[in-house]
Amino acid sequence: MADAAVKANAPDVADAAAQELTDGFHLVIDAFKLNGINTIYGVPGIPITDFGRMAQAEGIRVLSFRHEQNAGYAAAIAGFLTKKPGICLTVSAPGFLNGLTALAHATTNCFPMILISGSSEREIVDLQQGDYEEMDQLAIAKPLCKAAYRVLHAADIGIGLARAIRAAVSGRPGGVYLDLPAKLFGQVMDAKEGRKSLVKVIDPAPAQIPSPEAVKRALDVLKSAKRPLIILGKGAAYAQADDAIRALVEKTGIPFLPMSMAKGLLPDTHPQCAGAARSTVLKDSDVVMLIGARLNWLLSHGKGKAWGEPHSKMFIQIDIEPKEMDSNIEIVAPVVGDIGSCVAALLQGIDAKWPTAPADWTSAVSKKREENVAKMAPRLMNNNVPMDYHGALGVLRTIVKERPDAIFVNEGANTLDLARGVIDMYRPRKRLDVGTWGVMGIGMGYAIAASVETGKPVLAVEGDSAFGFSGMEIETICRYKLPVCVVIFNNDGIYRGTDVNAGGGPDPATTVFVKGSRYDKMIEAFGGVGVNATTPDELKRAVNAAMDSGKPTLINAVIDPAAGSESGRIGNLNPKSVLGKK
Ligand code: ADP
Ligand code: TPW
Ligand code: MG
After folding, report:
1. Threshold 0.85, pTM exceeds
2. Which residues, 6 or more positions from 413, have their beta carbon under 8 angstroms from its beta carbon?
3. How confident is the prediction for the chain on average, in pLDDT?
């Protein structure tokens, strides 16, 4: 309290006895509570250790992680699941940087999140005089998030948090950085003035109503379609306009294709679901309506062979971000607004006379889908030992069908791509995965937040490499006794476990791990249940037992090291030397 800022703010010592005081710690906590923020994900340390303690004492749930990146991913997915900004709290410089990957990830995936980091003394940082954990965090965060703010005075805490909340959730959601210097926490001010300074954010994500012209244009294009397709993206899942979206799909009779995290918005088993006829609908459709999905690499930018080019398709796009329109190809009917309002407006124009999608098209799509499902079915029932991906996924597919309320977290390469195709989802926002970047490391952070935010059981299916990025958080899962079952598809490595060192030296190849690792033993160190599963039947029994008991469980599912393919389904993105292999 010796610094100038505190002196300027602190009342006279004589008055202090008679006066009720508050400080930066309490004001941040009060501002959180006022805005319904009741969960924090983070790692403690200078200068936020006491803040975490006090927040916990005040009834906020503070989940303490082993690494900030995982806390950050937890906050990001909490934002996706709740439409409120997920909060990640870190220490200065290294803790801040560890959280930054997740902040950038939240921004890229359009998830609302606030990374709050303590920071060192402004005066010393700015003169680069070598403070403890010195770093100009605000400047570094700026290019990686939607907005970045710093609060220097206790009286501005209310405004600072209000700005951060609004920036995170309004318009296209994303990550926000909030810098809280160490000195701020101890700043004292009059409690009444403090209370007055707090802001309860009213209507943080205001409805954005589309223009009637845009709606009419979209309806006209849709009506003209002979082979229409609706693509649902994770923006549609985020919007929580589930009933309206279902009504739009069912009233028009148009086949729909869910992007990965939109699976389950309508069940994958819905008669109009074109998930199992993906190539056909992308190639043969003539009008495509995108709802909360970007035409990025995941949709081949709307161009090329996958889309049956040369084509004369027309695209309708519903998105809250006007700049998204025409980002990759021409959008003939942009509908800018929030998905709830846009879909409601479209529905007003879809009356009983609306021509449902032409039967020759819908039956062609159904036929393709049934053929593909039938082709896959026997592979999912195989009992090979060691297990291949399909044998193991066949079992998990049934378990998810029987437990549609569980949340399914998924990362890896083959483990991701094959699970996405095989495992049907039945409810909205139940599938959480690597998202727009295809990033490894989201697994345990997502599993923890999914369980904490929804109270539902979690099944996390992880490649052995993918798991390694956040594996230490199984201690966190055990510590908080979360109903999380982690299944590791252990094929001894990245993509496959069979690579050899082309140089012939003693080092193993770059993509392989210790053969026959027993990941199940890791969780036993923390009191969780570990199971080694070598057959589909053992896997089935272990997962069901875990889901029934709700006990933290880690199952090491032994997968044939030769079963996977390089980069899973996206091997085409992998550059190869024209000079050939050595
Ligand atoms: P996917 O990877 O599933 O295709 P993307 O992340 O590429 O999905 O796209 C999500 C899109 O949804 C983003 O362009 C984002 O602006 C948009 N979006 C997010 N929330 C809303 C909302 N409430 N209303 C409208 N659009 C939204
Ligand atoms: C942060 C590159 C993509 S997929 C993958 C890596 C390392 C692991 C694949 O092996 P896994 O799955 O998980 O065992 P499987 O079933 O195919 O064997 N660093 C980051 N993100 C990415 N995407 C990578 C590296 C990568
Ligand atoms: Mg692997």
Report:
1. yes
2. 463, 465, 466, 494, 495, 564, 567, 568, 570
3. 96
